[in-house]
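Record type: ASSEMBLY
Status: queued
Input:
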Amino acid sequence: MSELLASALPSRARMRRTAPAVVSAVALAAMIAVCASLQSDVLTVGGLTLVLSATVPLVIAAQAQMVLMSVGDIDLGIGSFVGLVTVVSATTLVTSPLLGVLMLLGLVAAYAVLGALIHLRRVPSLIATLGASFVWLGLGLFILPTPGGSTPEWLASFGAWAPAGFPAPLLPILVVALVVYLLTSRSALGVRMRGLGSNPVALQRAGLRPLTSRVFAYTAAGALGVVSGLVLASQTGGGDVSSASSYQLMTVAAVILGGGSFVGGSAVPWGVAIGGVTLGLVSVVLSLLDVQSNMQSAVQGVIVLAVLAGRVVVGKVLR
Amino acid sequence: MHVENLPAASSQDPSQGPSETPPGADRGPRAGRPVVVAKGVTKTYGRTRALNGVDLEVRAGEVLGLVGHNGAGKSTLMRVLAGLESCDDGAVLVHGKEVSGEAGPRAADFRAVRMAYQETSLCPDLTIAENIWVSSRHCLPRMRWRRAASDAVRGRLDEMFPGHGVTPRDRVEDLSLAQRQMVEITRASLVDRLDLLILDEPTESLGPDAARSLYDYVRRLTAAGTAVLLISHRIREVLSVADRVAVLRDGAVTAERFAEGLGEQDVLTLMGAHVAVPSERERAAAAHAAEGAAERPVVAELRGATGPGLREVSLRVGAGEVVGLAGLAGQGQQEVLERLWRPVRRDTKVLGTRAYVPGDRQRSGVLPLWSVAENLIVTAMRGLAKQGIRRPAEERAAVGDWVERLAIRGGADAGITELSGGNQQKVIVARAFASTAELVLLDDPFRGVDVHTKTDLYGLIRQEAAQGRSVVWYSSENAEMAHCDRVYVFRAGRVVAELVGEEISEERIIAVSFAESESDGEQSNE
Amino acid sequence: MNIRAIASRPWIWGFAAAVLVWLVILTVSGQGGGQTVSLALSLAPYLVVVGLGQMLVITAGPGNIDVSVAPIISLAGFVSVGVAASSGSATVGVLAGIGVGVLIAVISTVAILGLSVPPIIATLAAGLVASSVTLTIATGFTAIPDPGLRQLLNVRPAGVPILAVAVAVLTGLIVLLLRRTVYGRSLIAVGQNRRAAERAGIPVARVIATTYLVSGALAGLTGALLAAYIAPSADLGTRYLLDSVAVVVIGGTLISGGRAVPVGVWGAGLFFILLDGLVNLVGWSTAAQNLLKGGLVLFVLFLAGGGDRAGGTASRFRRRPRTAAATTTTTGDNTHG
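Status: finished
Output:
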């Protein structure tokens, strides 16, 4: 009976789903415009490289967060985890590369185990990852009590890489988004993960083990966290376990800005790329606008709330 | 591509499907071999014994109708037959082979047994094609599965539900209820080899056309040798489609009959008088109440309420009146309750306080960590308290009173989750009536509740109404409406009839709910 | 001892662990244990106060957490010291600290209820605002804590700090609040099943709002007292984010909501403070401290498990077959509405 009525729906529904990313994209464009009007160099390749480079590790960490949020979990430990990776890559990876690589792989495995335990013990991911963040922090301080060290040459040269034709930071952002898109939105594995976030009962009835899906998601998140940490280390040229502590909440905000949701089930890699860059640019704009550094975090908080408020309004209009 | 190995029945010539033949023409005893057999299956959950020695045989090429009132154990039996749950005692045989106790849906034995769930088992955030992958991945190629799944589901949907109006790329959350049901049934049918298809209330949210084409397809399936187990509370529908009918009652199969020559009344008798008929006295009281309705002060009123799911609904509730909301499920009755519960719009006027009795106990009724007493008093607590401080003595007295009045087994101090479903429901009902609310809203609360409890609760509602309380009662069970003073029958968000006193009868309600259903389609396309 | 008996009194864990650590300290240091206890009792109350607020928030059900407690403590520290110095009254200072906590919580509450922002994002954003204000105030901050209040916080008749007694009374009041008041019962009902609570006529939004405001107020109080006891600084509250959650978890409060154990917060609080003392005594680094704390939280969390709500208290250690869980759950359609 309502077939005809419903056939008109999807376009509207799709609009509703992409609206948050579009809002973020508009905000992004506005911020670049503001930057350009304050500092005309921003629109050159060099300027864009400078502006964007700081956002790359955040965007990649946000992709990790997005993967976990697609199964309905939240990771509050990603900031310390990325920090720990910078520490490992500034110390062990330099002194004994093989051991360093093994350690990084071990960290990914630790994420997988964490995911398995969260699932088996039915523990809220929010609190478990908060606890884990202190383990990451402790490990980082253990290896490198004070910020320092130096990154391996290959990593440093990646950080310094500046091609002529396009801003270099765009490449990792787009490549990672593409990989995450293929993993979460196109592959069968992605269907399992989103299915877990969407309706675990259906998954179970079909004979798919939710545990496997969750462990996959945590493994992927751990791997992305490692990549994020490597990129961050390549930019700062050293290790600091608390260098990414703001990520634990910024990544969640980036996912929300990109159109993700807390209930799980949806994957929005492209939206996250836009949301992450938008969020990362806020501090650039604020410093160009000569906003006191003290007030920057408050402005960031207000912007996150404002965008979420905007989403509520847009959602109501499109309903 | 690999698609051709997916749809089971289309490869087996569907042209022999007797869709033109009148229903029932090819019925009668068939010598199909048994596909799935249940032998003395017993299953208990906590204190409740859901299945109590079920013997049932589903044979190849037949439609077996399974009827039984709510709580008879239908859903548990289906879960056991589909291999989702193991039984405590007894055995399930698939193709004559006994399936071990731990058999889950992974077991290869159950791969050819598929079930379409009433509440669907689709992931709302995934597309239709992705949902097909989740449930039928064994039969899909590893590469390019998306296209294979899309082709398969599109073909099957076209075959089963012409004019379905969905594409494989649509997300399930964007579909209408009817479309979700169609996709769910299609999902269940998509497998390389289908021996038994279990349909659980498949037509609940389907329109008449879709139901007809579904049953056409079911006949084609059985003609090709697949067995179909049909669970439905629409007995006429079951009788017109099924070859045999099995009656489930209190966790056991109490009767098995050939459908031919069986009438609706016969089946109802076999199921046991599952709905208490109001006594003469109550009837008289109701009739009397109806007469006086005109003079009663109005407690709640909807005036031309329009919104999602509602169109121009006007209704009135008088003090001390029991008003029924009837019709098929999901025609706007719950939206009316929602309006009355949260009267925020201008078209809704509610005087006085309200209490709500939810139908879905687990999701919106029970507070699982608390005892019976705590669950019962949580609403009334507010009224009893002084300046936000509770008064334990008064609360205890009220709890004792209600536990006794409704004979809640287990007593006040038992944990709520230790109680049987019926007793839990009593607590939820008592929660509402223990408060001082002037208007009590009932959201189909007596589904899955046993006969005795129901009779008790019906009596309670009349008693409370006699004391001046108003009740608005939505029920999916039309027979329950006989306990009301006035009944509004809903269809597609409109009130299509208002029945008073003697006019209220199951036949009348059914007649009004289904009448002119062809014109529904046009209306909803506005 | 019977494991069921312990499980039904979940607060025992914290106290047992505290006693264990205390015994270890006793053996390691070889000095009088009374002094250690007295010191622990003078440090633990700060953690307990903020932990009680966090406990109420977590009891409100899945997804509820207050991550703004840490920035609120830092901010309230500065505000209360500043106000006390300018007004000359320590009481006004403490009240100002509480007030500023409530003010920040108002931001969270408006975002949670008005904009339907998930609590973690809402409290995060409010916390960011708080920390900005803190940094602004901190630059060029010269006022010193009220000496009278500091003295009061250090008074220990018979080795028992007055503050500990006061906070014990506060804990008792919270126990009463949860048992004897309409608000307390409503909060617990909301935590068990939000939908059911709403249908039972509980004003869910008001209950949630009250809970976050109380948590903000308690964090503000902690900040005011802590600043008087130590000194205001921008990272005064930093450690209290994990610690407040940890004492709630270790204290036996159900992390999925619906059951609060105020007494357990005390046990877990003492345990944490004694553990700090032990780690300092042995001379471990901050790295080891973090590792130990994080590991402990995870250990307790995974040991106790969660989410198994149907079985009540006794079955916290018994796992239900997963298939049974499937029957009670339905598709998540409605969560999107």
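Annotation: Chain A touches chain B through 30 residues (CB under 8 Å).
Annotation: Chain A has one domain: 54-314.
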